[in-house]
Amino acid sequence: MLDEKKRKITVDIYGQQYTIVGEESSSHIRIVASMVDDKMREISAMNPSLDTAKLAVLTAVNTVHDYMKLKEQINQLELELLKKRD
Questions:
Q1: How far apart are CA 43 and CA 61, in angstroms?
Q2: CB neighbours (10 Å) of residue 82?
Q3: Tens digit of pLDDT for each residue in 7-53?
Q4: Contact (Cβ atoms closer than 8 angstroms) between residue 55 and residue 43
Q5: Which of 33, 39, 70, 72 is the S-S candidate for 11 at Cβ 3.0 to 4.6 Å?
Q6: Of 41, 36, 39, which is closest to residue 18 (Cα–Cα)?
């Protein structure tokens, strides 16, 4: 039985159907899926010979890279805030 807080939603990413289970709203899950789809299509347009598995890995690498850059920016901003409080 599905946890009451969890939602199950089917999304389309790069022409494939995926069932996602999560606690976020359905709209949040759809937005995330749409962003993954957009990134895959963007990378595919630049590298049309990539198979889907390689495309998925490159999408993951690009996404984690972007995530790490954002984390670094947040950490830097937090340090700046702490310095201003002192």
A1: 11
A2: 9
A3: 999 999 999 999 999 999 999 999 999 999 999 999 999 999 999 99
A4: yes
A5: 33
A6: 36
Burial track 57-67 (b if 16+ CB lie within 10 A, e otherwise): ebbeeeeeeee
Which residue ranges make up each domain of the chain? 7-85
Report the chain's terminal Cα–Cα distance, integer Å: 51
Q: What is the pTM of this model?
A: 0.83
Beta pairing, strands 16-22 & 7-13: antiparallel
Residue type, 63: T
Cα 71 from Cα 61, distance rounded (Å)? 15
CA distance 21 to 44: 27
For the segment 40-58, what is each residue's pLDDT rounded down to a tens digit?
999 999 999 999 999 999 9
Tokens of 76: 């830097």
